[in-house]
Amino acid sequence: MRWYTHAVFGLLVAILLKFNLIMVLVCVFASLVPDIDTTKSKLGRKVKPLSWFFNVLFGHRKLFHSLFFAAGLSFLIYLYSFELALAFFVGYLSHLVIDSFNFAGIRWFYPAKFKIKGFIKTGSFLEHVLFFVILVIIAILSF
Ligand SMILES: [Zn+2]
After folding, report:
1. In this structure, which residues have their CB less than 5 angstroms from ion ligand 1?
2. 99 CA distance to ligand 1 middle (Å)
């Protein structure tokens, strides 16, 4: 999925969970983090050498798209702040949830081979429909 679909879904989840502003920002940021494993992503382009390194070492939609990795990163943040760790974990999970609808799918329990995949291709008309539906829900919740 494209970065903006991940970002709006992360925002929706943060609003539904009534996060404070800092937590909303962390949640939306975390919703973009898993795709750091590809230099083609929004975040990957910002830190290209690091992203390239992660991609060569771990591949795209593998380790960085696993529940265990999300929990591990969140635990490290938890050592600093429970609230930030919670926001990060929720944002990260929101990415994995949306990617589960993707045609390519993800392996939630990587390195286990079990994969959850959907029917939406990245950048397709259907993804844009999903994006606008999420936007409309956010707009409705904001009033
Ligand atoms: Zn992804």
Report:
1. 34-35, 99
2. 6
* Count of domains forming the chain: 1
- Per the structure, the complete domain to which residue 105 belongs is given by 3-142
pLDDT single digits (tens) 82-109 = 999 999 999 999 999 999 999 999 999 9
Whole-model pTM over 0.85? yes
d(C-alpha 13, C-alpha 64), whole Å = 20
What is the CA(81)–ligand 1 centre distance, in A?
25
Q: How far is the CA of 143 from the centre of ligand 1 (A)?
A: 30
Task: Say what the pLDDT of residue 143 is.
Answer: 87
Distance of CA 35 from the midpoint of ligand 1 (Å): 5
